[in-house]
TrEMBL record:
Keywords: Cytoplasm, Cytoskeleton. It is found in: Cytoplasm, Cytoskeleton, Microtubule organizing center, Centrosome, Centriole. Signal peptide: none annotated. Pfam families: CEP76-C2 (PF15627), CEP76_C (PF24652), CEPT76_peptidase (PF24656). This is Centrosomal protein of 76 kDa. Residues 291-421 form the CEP76/DRC7 peptidase-like domain. It comes from Buceros rhinoceros silvestris. InterPro entries: CEP76, CEP76-C2, CEP76_C, CEPT76/DRC7_peptidase-like_dom, Papain-like_cys_pep_sf. PANTHER family: CENTROSOMAL PROTEIN OF 76 KDA. One of its GO terms (biological process) is regulation of centriole replication. The lineage of its organism: Eukaryota, Metazoa, Chordata, Craniata, Vertebrata.
């Protein structure tokens, strides 16, 4: 009997068939009104980059591969396997293809109906190194419907995975995949029928994309005729995904509901900001920025991405919360290209959201024609110019005389200020249109990290690192457990402030510390924030701060040290890690 939540919401990342059953398919309750695709990954071969990989010793930490899947609002994750030339994947995933509506229990959906379900199985391969750093290895869209024409309802597919970014034409390895329908089909289709269907879909998609390209070129010509200087503005109509495919930017956005995982738009902004930030890698020198806008599944599975990935996700979540949100493309200081998010309030308020930090800024345009009676305050936001903005339904090019953000007027209905693209044209290449090469959005998954366990682990490791560091300096270390515990409210308050902008509970914290520090003693505390859970890396960063180093290396009379760690988990494997080091000692003057 399936719990209702389990039935309707996406499974957690670790929930997959093999977790509950041995690799041999024994018994499981299959709902008779549903059709399932049983997808098995039976090993890999030709991962040549790992040809020289030594066999890991038992218990030794080694680099691993993890395979993440998304299909029709369901997500799965394989067991991690050691990186090798022939990785030992042995996983099975039960994907629900179709569920009949109530009352249709007598007639099971047939192969012809399932042929019209054109959602692919999106497979993302992640490598995790010995330090826990993740790398996107491959992203692949599996056409599963070949199984509908397989003789005995079973088909084996050799899936050749290609690399990502600059290596999107290079093979990284082959996965052996076995597909099977459950319950078995009474009647299979002929391969001619399935191949004809695939060809028709490809043709339809290609034609829509061609027509959109023709329209986009025409729109760009018109945009340049308004003002020749428009050619230097950052107007981005297409962007390359991790597989090197050029896609309209609007297709990277979709209203995304976080179900019960996030409660407010500001909490969504906090979640996006604690996903790791990493610029797309570029091979060779030069100032050129490698462009790679990731599909949402690849971004979430890696748990890090560039500013575009963060902005696209935040915009999608804000749209899901019912706000009018757009991604802005422009520059920061020194002309560095950047993307951020903007929301338009019903009262005319324009708010900028920085997806990397979670900060929000109210935009008040300066009228350049006003006499400079009063020196205008410098805007707080870091943005300098804006070329265009877009969401899943609109694309607008900035055609105001200046593209400087501070003088921009965000009256998006005024076509003399913002040149719109046809909504119909955008709809033709962005879901929920029909056939499309745009991957469906996966749902967010709940965190699998236990906050208390993770906090404790990091804290224990930091105590060891501090004691070792002080020992090297010839200092002994005495920990004050009571003082360590008293630091908790401060860490909770810092996270609350980052999420809501509201500070609370400082009076109680100050009072407790005053009571814990005797007369004639000095207290010093240093809070710091990370988005990863590697204690050694965090400690090395802390030592680079003179304030923190002063506490950790504190000398004096009756020195007592304290450290408190608080991990706040967010959806996926995102987390905010707050650490506070403190010391108290007798003041000798």
């Amino acid at each position: 009997d399936v719990d209702e939540k389990e039935r309707t919401s996406a499974p957690k990342p670790a929930t997959h068939f093999v977790d509950r059953e041995p690799p041999v398919l024994k018994k499981t309750n299959i709902d008779p009104t549903r059709r399932y695709l049983y997808l098995q990954v039976l090993g890999g071969k030709a991962f040549l980059e790992h040809l020289q990989e030594p066999e890991p010793l038992p218990g030794q930490i080694c680099s691993t591969f993890t395979l993440c899947l998304h299909f029709r609002n369901q997500r799965f994750r394989s067991q991690p396997v050691p990186c090798a030339c022939e990785p030992d994947f042995h996983d099975g995933f039960l994907l629900e293809v179709h569920k009949d509506s109530l009352g249709d229990g007598s007639k099971m959906v047939d192969a012809t109906t399932m042929l019209s379900i054109c959602d692919p199985v999106h497979m993302v391969l992640i490598r995790t190194d010995t330090f826990g750093e993740t790398t996107l290895v491959a992203s692949y869209f599996l056409e599963w419907r070949s199984v509908l024409a397989a003789e005995n309802g079973v088909t084996n597919v050799a899936v050749e995975l290609l690399g990502v970014g600059t290596e999107s034409k290079v093979s990284v390895g082959v996965l052996n995949v076995r597909l099977e329908m459950y319950p078995p089909l009474n009647k299979t289709l002929s391969p001619e029928i399935t191949n004809t269907q695939f060809a028709l879909e490809r043709q339809k998609t290609a034609e829509k994309e061609r027509l959109f390209l023709v329209y986009a070129k025409q729109w760009w010509r018109e945009y340049l005729q308004i003002r020749p200087t428009h050619s230097t503005r950052l107007v981005k109509i297409f962007a390359q995904d991790e597989n090197g495919a050029n896609r309209p930017v609007c297709s990277y956005i979709r209203p995304l509901r976080a179900n019960r995982l996030l409660d407010t738009p500001r909490q969504a902004a906090r979640f996006v900001s604690v996903l790791g930030y990493e610029r797309a890698a570029v091979i060779g020198g030069g100032e050129g920025k490698q462009e790679q806008w990731c599909t949402l599944l690849a971004f979430l599975c890696r748990n890090k991405g560039d500013c575009e990935d963060h902005a696209n996700l935040l915009c999608s979540l804000l749209l899901g919360f019912g706000l009018e949100a757009f991604v802005c493309v422009g520059t920061k200081a020194k002309g560095v290209p950047h993307t951020w998010v903007m929301t338009c309030g019903t009262d005319g308020t324009t708010t900028f959201w920085e997806s990397i930090t979670g900060h929000r800024y109210i935009h008040r345009p300066i009228n350049p024609d006003d006499p400079p009676l009063v020196e205008q305050p410098k805007p707080l936001y870091p943005y300098r110019t804006i070329g265009c903005l877009f969401n899943h339904q609109k694309f607008l090019g900035n055609c105001q005389p200046s593209d400087a953000v501070e003088v921009c007027v965000f009256d998006l209905h005024d076509e003399s200020k913002w040149k719109p693209m046809s909504g119909e044209a955008i709809k033709s290449v962005c879901p929920p249109g029909t056939a499309s090469s745009v991957p469906p959005f996966p749902p967010l998954c709940a965190s699998t990290i236990d906050e208390a366990v993770a906090s404790n682990e990091i804290e224990v490791q930091l105590r060891v690192l501090v004691s070792e560091h002080r020992k090297d300096l010839g200092l002994s270390t005495v920990w004050d457990d009571h003082l360590s515990y008293l630091l908790s409210p401060a860490l909770a308050a810092y996270e609350l402030e980052r999420t809501t902008g509201v500070s609370a509970g400082n009076e109680e914290f100050q009072d407790a510390v005053r009571r814990a520090v005797p007369e004639g003693h000095t207290f010093k505390g240093f809070p710091i924030h990370f988005v990863y859970r590697n204690a050694r890396r965090a400690f090395a960063t802390c030592l680079r701060s003179p304030f923190c180093e002063e506490i950790i290396c504190c000398r004096g009379d009756q020195v007592r040290l304290a450290v408190r760690v608080r991990v706040f988990t967010y959806p996926e494997s995102a987390c905010a890690v707050w650490i506070m080091f403190a010391c108290k000692y007798r003041s000798v003057l």
